[in-house]
Task: inverse folding
């Protein structure tokens, strides 16, 4: 008899379970006015950590504002904002060790900023210039930074989930005291990779934090059209994982949940699932128009739960931030980002030879042949490749 069946309750008449059978509370610490709930247990946080988190909040808001504008001006081809989900991303990132491995989906650039990615590095990636760490091979916002333990983003949904299971397992096998954290949306949780990755992590006891940003929509598809179950948290329980649901707009609740999730993952060499209930205030991407599938009234309602404003009010209440300092910080980053845009867009594109470097230890004959064919094509149609033709 399996271990799963030895402790089961026995009944003698038909008794079905449904979605209401599993009670999943939601962790809340901060109220909308920035004051903690009366019985709230605060996470481990001091002024230095709080200010580091808020600095990344402000930078991300400014970056989103400026770069969405740059995309509309035709200066970059694509952009995705983090607006409205900053607490989910930064509250969790701040709970990690800087050597914990981040496997992001595509809306977690705030976590990368928290790790130390510079304004110049953001710009070089989005403009795909010769200083881009990815050598211009990725579309904008598909960052990667080995030095910051931030794995390169891939566009297809869900691919990072089973990869995170493998990363966590490798950390365990090496005896390292670190975890992997895997970000994804509730839409990606409908992919087969989600189920494969979760089950592997639970069975192999991989120290990985699966962090679901349940922001209400998979592009234009609302959650009620995505699944009939009790959110994503119920699936963690089904796979035998420690699981928690948290207010994703509450910075302190996310921080507390992730701090304890990390401690559990390390102590037990086991995965944890966090479902953060939040809302994407902006469009899915610069190619999306949310007015086609949700109302302005709905958006206005969620703006009242702005995670950055709530955290800011808590900082002011603590005496760790003044309104005047906040205004200075926003203006400083607006100037810094705008100046970096003007510099990065003038940096030349990568050399065309770099397109086959770092694929294999040495470029294969086939790749070399393809490169020569590409060069011939660019030389024949230089007007179509203005950034590359002049560097052949």
Result:
């Amino acid at each position: 008899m399996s271990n799963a069946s030895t402790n089961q309750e026995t009944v003698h008449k038909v008794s079905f379970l449904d979605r209401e059978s599993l009670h999943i509370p939601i962790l809340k610490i901060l109220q909308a006015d920035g004051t903690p709930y009366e019985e709230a247990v605060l996470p481990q946080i001091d002024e230095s950590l709080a200010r580091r988190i808020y600095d990344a909040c402000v930078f991300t808001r400014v970056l989103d504002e400026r770069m969405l504008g740059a995309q509309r001006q035709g200066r970059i081809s694509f952009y995705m904002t983090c607006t409205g989900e900053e607490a989910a991303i930064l509250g969790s990132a701040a709970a990690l060790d800087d050597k914990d491995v981040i496997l992001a989906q595509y809306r977690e650039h705030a976590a990368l900023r928290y790790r130390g990615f510079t304004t110049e590095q953001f710009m070089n990636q989005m403009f795909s210039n010769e200083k881009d760490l990815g050598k211009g091979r990725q579309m904008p916002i598909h960052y990667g930074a080995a030095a910051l333990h931030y794995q390169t983003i891939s566009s297809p949904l869900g691919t990072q989930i089973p990869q995170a299971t493998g990363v966590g397992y490798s950390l365990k096998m090496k005896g390292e005291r670190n975890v992997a954290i895997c970000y994804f949306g509730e839409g990606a949780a409908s992919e087969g990779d989600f189920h494969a990755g979760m089950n592997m992590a639970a069975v192999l006891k991989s120290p990985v934090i699966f962090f679901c940003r349940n922001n209400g929509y998979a592009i234009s598809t609302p959650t009620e059209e995505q699944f009939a179950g009790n959110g994503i948290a119920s699936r963690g329980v089904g796979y035998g994982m420690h699981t928690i649901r948290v207010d994703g707009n509450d910075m302190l609740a996310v921080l507390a949940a992730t701090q304890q999730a990390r401690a559990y993952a390390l102590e037990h060499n086991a995965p944890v699932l966090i479902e953060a209930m939040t809302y994407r205030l902006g469009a899915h991407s610069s190619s999306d128009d949310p007015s086609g599938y949700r109302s302005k009234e709905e958006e206005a309602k969620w703006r009242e739960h702005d995670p950055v404003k709530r955290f800011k009010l808590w900082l002011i209440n603590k005496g760790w931030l003044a309104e005047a300092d906040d205004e200075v910080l926003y203006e400083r980053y607006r100037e810094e980002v705008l100046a970096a845009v003007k510099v990065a867009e003038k940096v030349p594109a990568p050399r065309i030879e770099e397109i086959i470097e770092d694929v294999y230890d040495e470029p294969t004959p086939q790749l070399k042949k393809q490169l020569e064919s590409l060069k011939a094509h660019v030389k024949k149609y230089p007007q179509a490749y203005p950034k590359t033709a002049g560097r052949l």
Summary: The longest strand covers residues 208-214. The CA atoms of residues 44 and 357 lie 44 Å apart. The beta strands are 26-27, 101-103, 150-151, 180-185, 208-214, 217-218, 221-222, 242-247, 272-277.
